[in-house]
TrEMBL record:
It comes from the Archaea. It comes from Nitrosarchaeum koreense MY1. Prenyltransferase that catalyzes the transfer of the geranylgeranyl moiety of geranylgeranyl diphosphate (GGPP) to the C3 hydroxyl of sn-glycerol-1-phosphate (G1P). This reaction is the first ether-bond-formation step in the biosynthesis of archaeal membrane lipids. SUPFAM superfamilies: FMN-linked oxidoreductases. GO terms for molecular function: imidazoleglycerol-phosphate synthase activity; magnesium ion binding; phosphoglycerol geranylgeranyltransferase activity. This is Geranylgeranylglyceryl phosphate synthase.
Amino acid sequence: MTGNKVESFLKSELEKKNALLFVLIDSEESKLESSQKLAQDVEKIGASAILVGGSSATDQIEMAKVVKGIKKGIKIPIILFPGNITGVVPDADAILFSSLMNSENPYFITQAQALGAPSVLKFGLEPLPTAYLVIGDGTSAWFVGSARGIPFEKPKIAAAYALAAQFLGMRFVYLEAGSGAKSSVTPEMVKTVRKAFNGFLIVGGGIRDTKTASDLVKAGADALVIGTFLEKGGSIKKLAEITKAIQRSK
Ligand SMILES: CC(C)=CCC/C(C)=C/CC/C(C)=C/CC/C(C)=C/COP(=O)(O)OP(=O)(O)O
Ligand SMILES: O=P(O)(O)OC[C@@H](O)CO
Ligand SMILES: [Mg+2]
C-alpha cells in the first residue's frame, strides 16, 4: 500500500468517533484461529484497527500467518507493531514505524528502523512515523527495548519528548506503560503531552476498565490500545462497554 490511506482512515474515524480503540493481537499468545475470530469480533464492536506484534515476537513465520489469516475476515486496517525487525511482515496495511526515543540503546532508536525500512518498502506497508515512549519500568517493552523509563509522575518529561517528536516530523506519539502494566499512564501525563503535541496520540498498557479508558480519553488520548485484557479472557461485551464509553468521553 502506498500513500497515506491508513493515516487518512484513522483521521476520518477520529472525526466520527472522537476516540478510537486499537486491539493488540500478540502473535505469540494467540494462535491463528482464535486471532481470526477475535479480530472479527472486535471489528463488530467498533475497533478501528488491529495491531499485531509482540516485544519478543521473533517467530516471523507465525506472525506472517496470523496477519494473512486475519486480513481476509476484516475491513479495518491491520497495523504492525514491531518490537524488532522480525515484526516486519507482508500483508498488513501499515506499520507503527516507531523509534523508542527514550531507549539507552541506539539500536531501538534508529538501527532497527534502518534494518527494517527496506522490507517496509518491499512489502508496501504504509509507515506511520511514531515516537514510542516507554513510561515506568519492569515491563517487557521496557526491558527488551533498554528503555530509561519516564517516571509515571513526570508528565513534563514525556511532554518534552513528544514535542521533540513533533519537531522531528513524527505524526504519532505512543505513550506506553507496557503490556500488562499494573497501572496505565496517568491522565495527567496524557493531558500534559496533549498540550505539547499536535499529532495522533496513542496510549496503551494496563487499560482494562471503563473509568480508566474514559479518563485517558478525556485527558486527550486519540486512541487506546488494549491487549492483555482480552488475552486474559476479558469479554467482548465488556470491551464493547469500554468502546462506547470512550466514544462518548470527549
Ligand atoms: C520500526 C522497526 C522495524 C522496529 C521498531 C523497533 C522498536 C522501536 C522497538 C521498541 C522496543 C520494543 C521491544 C517494543 C515492544 C512493542 C510491543 C510489540 C509491545 C507489545 O507488548 P507484548 O509483546 O504484548 O508484551 P509481552 O511481551 O509482555 O507479551
Ligand atoms: O496489553 P495491554 O496492557 O493492554 O497493553 C497494550 C499495549 O500498550 C502493549 O504494548
Ligand atoms: Mg503480549
